[in-house]
Amino acid sequence: MKGKSRLSAKSLGYCSCHVCGLVSRPDNDDDTIDLCPRCHTTLYMRKTGSIERCWALLLASAILYVPANTLIMMETGTLISYRKDTILSGVVHLWVSGSWFVAAIVFVASIVVPLFKIIALALLLMSVQRRSRHWIPQRTRLYRLVEAVGRWSMLDIFVVTLLAALVQIRSLAIVKAGPAAIAFGAVVVLTMLAAMAFDPRLIWDPIRKEKP
Amino acid sequence: MSIPHRHLIICHECDQVLKEIPLPNGGVACCSCCGATLYRHTQDSINRTLAFAVAAAVMYVIANCFPIIGIDFQGNYNEVTLPGAISSVWNQGRPVISTLVLFCIIVAPAVEIMLMICLLLPVRMGQKALGVYPIMRTLQVIKTWGMVEVFMLGILVALVKLTTDFIVIYEVAIWAFAALTLLLASMTASFNPREVWQQLDQIAEDGEAP
Question: What would the DSSP string read from start to end of B26-89?
Answer without folding.
Answer: T-EEE-TTT--EEEE--TTHHHHHHHHHHHHHHHHHHHHHS--EEEEETTEEEEE-HHHHHHHH
